[in-house]
Design a protein that fits this description.
It is a single chain. With about 280 residues, the chain is α+β, with helices and mostly antiparallel strands. The chain has two domains: about 30 residues; about 190 residues, no CATH class. It contains seven helices and six strands; from the N terminus they run αααβαβαββαββα. It has a six-stranded antiparallel β-sheet with strand order 1-2-3-4-6-5.
């Protein structure tokens, strides 16, 4: 019997038989080239640089915006200049009735009374004069001194004491600066001319209707900022002070000092610290 192999069995081909074509094996993918990897790294590095630069620009812009929105900070010199400007304009900005109130408290010292405690009194305003030039508000040497230092205007008011037997005129002279006002005080005090430099201001139909320069008994001078404050006092009935009457002199000094202090306090109060509300360019 001849045995035939099963049809589905494969046997190795013998030499000289019909060879079947064998499919070639596919080669594996070649490894990535070094040049390609380098290019990718360069692109990644460039992107990183651009990202960092963008973030830095954004941060700079944010700082600039915040600087514009935050309150402005003035230097020490700027604060001083702004405060000086506020002081210099105060005589125009304040109502006359604020600089010269209708009633001003003052105190008679215990020594003048020969008592153990002082006496509280009030002076009442008789009238206010419109702003005038400095030469009309002072007399004697003071006219030249104030003119030399640039006095631009003078404000005046007259008061009477509680009994209406004493009257006093208070004058505020406007100088260009605090140093100019200080120089005026120094020159007047040094020459002794500050004793009677303030012109008396009459007020018709009041106790000061007869108050003239010849009725002045004593005068005082001081300054606050760019303002020269002067005061003079006398009797409303034309009497003159007897040098030995310590009580009358003490009463006059107390009255004029109280009136000058009132003007000094109003004009000399320190302005608020300059600040910016926060808007750009404020």
């Amino acid at each position: 019997m001849n045995w035939q192999p099963e049809p589905d069995q494969s046997w190795p081909e013998t030499a000289g038989g019909n060879d079947r074509p064998v499919a070639p094996e596919r080669p594996s993918s070649p490894p990535a080239r070094p040049v390609g990897r380098l290019r990718r790294r360069i692109r990644q590095f460039a992107f990183s640089l651009l990202l960092v630069a963008g973030l830095a620009g954004l941060a700079t812009s944010a700082v600039g915006i915040a600087h514009q929105l935050l309150p402005r900070r003035f230097s020490t010199a700027q604060r001083r200049a702004i405060s000086a400007w506020e002081m210099e304009r105060r005589w125009r900005a304040l109502p006359a009735g604020t600089i010269f109130p209708a009633s001003v408290p003052y105190q008679l010292s215990a020594d003048g009374l020969e008592a153990t405690s002082p006496l509280d009194l009030n002076a009442r305003r008789l009238g206010i004069s419109p702003a005038t030039n400095c030469a009309q508000a002072v007399s004697g040497t003071a006219v030249r001194v104030l003119s030399t230092h640039g006095c631009s205007a003078a404000l005046r008011a007259t008061y009477a004491d509680s009994s209406s037997s004493l009257v006093a005129t208070i004058t505020v002279a406007v100088l260009p600066s605090a140093s100019a006002a200080s120089a005026v005080v120094g020159e007047l005090s040094g020459s002794g001319a500050d004793q009677m430099v303030v012109r008396a201001m009459r007020i018709a139909d009041t106790p000061a209707a007869r108050f003239g320069d010849t009725d002045r008994q004593l005068s005082r001078t001081e300054h606050v900022g760019p303002y020269l404050i002067l005061g003079t006092v006398g009797f409303s009935d034309g009497r003159h002070l007897h040098i030995a009457d310590a009580y009358l002199k003490s009463e006059m000094v107390s009255l004029v000092k109280g009136l000058m202090y009132s003007a000094h306090h109003t004009l000399g109060v320190a302005p608020p610290v300059p600040s910016c509300p926060g808007a750009p360019g404020c």
